[in-house]
Predict the structure.
Amino acid sequence: MSKKNKETNKNSRQIQFVWGLLCKLSSIDQEKNNISLFNVIDQLNLPKKVFSNESEDQESVSINHELVMVFRRVLPLHVSNQKIQADCKITLIDPKGEELQEVVIPLVFKEKSRRSRMRIRTNGILISSPGSYVYKIEVRNPDADNFHKMGEIPLEVLSVQEQDS
């Protein structure tokens, strides 16, 4: 087995992406280990004027939102309960398949922790055209060279006609 395949297998054995979504606001109760989500976003309806720009550049749309993700430790705690550290790369991909934004942040499982929750707050999102966008989630262990795709979070962006008041 090649080194690359071993690294990919190691990532997939230790960490699993359970779910992720976009919302306006979230709250993580550290005492009770619960998460509350408010105003889940799976579609943005934007005025046509946002897309009327003739240039190919992306437009930053000011929408406060959070990207919330949950990961779990694959091995049971009685088999492996040590701290796990990895890098998580989140890439926003537009309907044409172009990468618009990318961020790499640490993903940490505390010792004896089965789950890790991650929340990323942002003030805006880059939009290039109406269509289906996706946040691609990838993970890389510190001793690995490559990221391994774990999942995707979809976002539909529609162009709508503004109504006269």
Summary: The longest strand covers residues 15-29.
